[in-house]
Write the structure tokens for this entry.
Amino acid sequence: MTLNGDVTSGGCRGGKVQLKVRGRPVMTMVCHCTGCQKMTASAFSLSSLYPEDNVEVSGPEPVIGGLHGDLRHFFCPHCLSWMFTRFDAMGPFVNVRSTMLDDSAGFTPFMETCVSEKLPWVQTPARHSYPQFPPMEDFPRLMGEFAESGG
């Protein structure tokens, strides 16, 4: 995991779209919704939330897939790896798929969402669980607690 002002690099599976994130995420999360299960072909999606100014994307322009509304999922146009999500209601943040980063092992999930849709055998070390998505007003408190815990 990135500590202090360091940069962590990563990219899509095919290597065409590159990511760089600066500093620590403001939150790490797991989403258990059936949409994430389908888009990852797995039990959940794993993500790290960064201020948009701390995220650099280079290479071909990512394309929108998955949902096409307020919640926008961005994919590599070549290999179609799901790379990051933007949700305007969250403000100027980018929700990077942690596994797109080269050193993803340290991005332990702090919060899990949509546990009402979770596969029954899944267990995570997340400190906070929500049946759906947490209310937006909970995010400042959660981000503060995440920062205090050292992320």
In short: The radius of gyration is 14 Å. The mean pLDDT is 92. The first strand starts at residue 7 and ends at 11.
